[in-house]
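Exercise 7. Given the encoded structure of a 335-residue chain, write a plausible sequence.
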């Protein structure tokens, strides 16, 4: 085993939720990702759709037990001293698959080794091991300090401002379906600062006047609460959900997989920092304000910048493009 030390940290991360036009959905999860040598460990696991056990919706007692386990102050949940580092974001059932590793003490150090994909109590390292990952040796003092001062992966609500209550009600219902709280209001006057701190984003409907927008921004500023404010691009619920997901992403820019999206009538430009599955969906409104959605790309992209041709019928008229990976969303109007 290598004696070289790796640095250990935690960073906010998101498993982006989504709402499809066919009524299906994917749950939003906020969690803390493990950062090894300055890079999210999840990025080393190909295109894995998973979350760590350090999630915002985990009850405090269970979260504390997860931390005790990683500190080797509690028995391992799986045979062989194995701990779940990433699990299914929908149900956390081992049968769905999980990334596990042996977590052990070596003197004052902590070591993570024998990473594997596991679907039952026993594991075949030859068949299911991640042979190119680890082992990682962490200095005990740094490792303990990070886990003992566990930052909070906060659940955020969204404030919807506007006069078109029917559209906002559909958006609020969609956000709640995927696990994001949403409230509808005409303004933020008189709302206590403590309540405003619960909001991570404000969505202004297209009919909201500039005076109303300025009033909401002023209410948050007077309360000393930073918040992302966004203008609803179009009355298309899946598109607005994607806007909200992007606004709620608090992960550092240097630790994101999906970093750039451009869109013209001819092509999309996409930039990713590690191999991952990217899905591109075009939304457009026709002359009768009917919504049309087209899946224009779905595939694994290597790190770097990529150009994806777009069919003209998918981006005709007022059109928007949404790029998704398991952990991030970008939205762009088609220029």
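Solution.
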């Amino acid at each position: 085993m290598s004696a070289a030390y790796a640095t250990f940290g935690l960073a906010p991360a998101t498993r982006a939720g989504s709402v499809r036009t066919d009524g299906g959905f994917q749950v939003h999860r906020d969690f803390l990702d493990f950062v090894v040598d300055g890079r999210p460990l999840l990025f080393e696991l190909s295109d894995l759709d998973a979350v760590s056990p350090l999630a915002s919706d985990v009850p405090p007692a269970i979260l504390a037990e997860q931390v005790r386990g990683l500190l080797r102050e509690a028995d391992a949940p799986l045979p062989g001293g194995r701990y779940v580092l990433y699990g299914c974001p929908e149900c956390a059932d081992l049968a769905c698959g999980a990334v596990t590793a042996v977590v052990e003490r070596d003197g004052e150090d902590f070591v993570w080794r024998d990473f594997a994909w596991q679907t039952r109590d026993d594991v075949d390292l030859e068949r299911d091991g991640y042979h190119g990952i680890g082992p990682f040796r962490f200095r005990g003092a740094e490792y303990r300090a990070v886990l003992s001062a566990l930052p909070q992966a906060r659940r955020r609500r969204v404030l919807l401002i506007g006069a078109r209550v029917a559209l906002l009600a559909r958006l609020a219902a969609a956000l709640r379906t995927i696990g994001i709280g949403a409230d509808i209001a005409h303004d933020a006057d008189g709302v206590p600062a403590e309540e405003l701190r619960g909001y991570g984003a404000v969505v202004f409907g297209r009919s909201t006047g500039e005076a109303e927008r300025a009033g909401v921004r002023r209410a948050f500023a007077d309360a000393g609460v930073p918040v992302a404010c966004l203008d609803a691009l179009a009355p298309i619920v899946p598109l607005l959900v994607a806007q909200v997901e992007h606004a709620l992403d608090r992960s550092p820019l240097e630790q994101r997989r999906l970093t750039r999206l451009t869109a013209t009538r001819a092509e999309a430009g996409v930039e990713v920092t590690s191999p991952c599955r990217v899905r591109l969906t075009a939304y457009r409104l026709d002359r009768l304000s009917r919504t049309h959605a087209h899946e224009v790309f779905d595939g694994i992209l290597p790190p770097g910048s990529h150009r994806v041709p777009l069919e003209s019928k998918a981006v005709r008229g007022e059109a928007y493009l949404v790029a998704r990976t398991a952990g991030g969303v970008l939205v762009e109007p088609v220029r």
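Remark. The chain has a mean pLDDT of 90. Students should compare their own answers with the one above.
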